[in-house]
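Hi F.,

I've been meaning to write this up properly since the lab meeting, where we talked about keeping a consistent format for the predictions we share between groups. The idea is simple: the sequence comes first, exactly as it goes in, then the structure tokens exactly as they come out, then a line or two of notes. No screenshots and no reformatting. I'm using this chain as the first example so we have something concrete to point to.
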Amino acid sequence: MTKQEIAQLLDQAAKDAKPIRQMAAEHKISLDAAYEIQQLSINRRLDRGEKITGFKLGFTSRAKMEQMNVHDLIWGVLTDAMVLQANEEVDLKRWIHPRAEPEIAFRISKDITESIGLKEITNYVDKMAPAVEIIDSRYENFKFSLEDVVADNCSSTGYVVGNWQDVNENIADLDIALKINDEVVEEGKTAAILSNPLQSVVELTRLASKAGTKIEAGQIVMAGAATAAVYLDYEQRVEADVEKLGKVGFKTKAQ
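Output, unedited:
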């Protein structure tokens, strides 16, 4: 099976909300090939008229890296078709087995074409906000290898961003929680995101420059999860609550 054919299968699985089997082991897909498949799948979205709105980081937790036996972050692409509005009511039938994670989003203020260090990164980021990312693997049983998940655009499927506010560099140890129907179901510290969420943007600049990808002004970066992801169900109010940054969320419709 060619990379183009695998990209088409993954794209169709997302469109139809029907899972497919894992493919990396069977087709001996390398990590580099997985990123090529990811891009081919994104190209199909762009051909349908979607626009790139930013990027997401994965494996930003050292514990998750160790669990997956990897030594670097992974990254995926966000598009305008993934955007949810604050308090929007969404139909879970559009996804396969969606889960939610509380995050911090950053807005890029200047184009980035090279790797930027932590001391300089705030020259390229002007706003931050609380956010929820919805992840939804296109594979059966939400199980996958590193290469599988990268090919699947790192399970990207939806996100909602709260009110933007000026970047404060002192965000390395904030409380962050995911609430379902006003009950805290997961909580942690922003330090779980590479010790400092801004470091995720730094790492993205490194990965993107290596891949020859420009990060454009106005695009956003989802810094990665500080807690475990929580499976979504019908008739829920889902909300991220980040100390000093505020709250944002959405609702799920009845079945």
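Notes:
The chain has one domain: 3-252.
The mean pLDDT is 94.

If this format works for you, I'll send the rest the same way.

G.
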